[in-house]
């Protein structure tokens, strides 16, 4: 198996080391693992692509390439340039430093890479490590994802990555904020919604008098509904959420057609 590994935390991120080991485990002795990751941190860029400017790429070692662009750029570079003669069988994105459950999914560059891979017709899994008081002080905060990651992806490979008539399925996997021995199992979930949690800004004034804004996230341990990703994570479970790049609110179609359709 040929696996393309990327992330949004950058090519020197510790979570990428964890994911490279997961990929090597999955690829086996006859497989290949290629890393094509952002040269600098790209957290929060979503599915952004560098459509209006060229992207510099540089080798960082055997089968290891840095791209001065977004995670989606990295997937494009990997599929169409770095691995163009032997395209990847699987794209793994992560392991992200922090969860990509609930509303974080919409902002995540980690998810953006998986979306782009799915759009390219390549099987893709995004993996993220929830942070919390029970794992922040560990020598390796990625302990849960390191221990469970390969088995979860194996299960997904065995199940498959079904395509609809339009968009291919990819998977969003989040590991709970606890040590590896405390992980209770795996739950298949929907995307959650943290009520009252959203991004905002915090203004700061520089010594020069200029105004700057820091973007701030909301509380990450706000509970979500049962059966959703963050709810499972905070209860000690790995969440697996099947996703597609289709933002249509299908539940609204019938009513909207009745209200607006005309000849």
Description of the structure:
With 263 residues, the chain is α/β, with parallel strands linked by helices. It has one domain: 3-Layer(aba) Sandwich (Stationary-phase Survival Protein Sure Homolog, Chain: A). 27% of the residues lie in helices and 25% in strands. It has 7 helices and 11 strands. It has helices at residues 14-27, 71-82, 104-107, 109-119, 143-159, 229-234, 253-260; strands spanning 2-6, 32-38, 57-61, 64-67, 90-97, 123-129, 170-175, 185-188, 200-205, 211-216, 237-243. The strands form 2 sheets. It has a 9-stranded mixed sheet with strand order 3-4-2-1-5-6-7-11-8, with helices on both faces. Helix 2 (71-82) runs parallel beside helix 4 (109-119). The radius of gyration is 19 Å and the shape is globular. The mean pLDDT is 96.
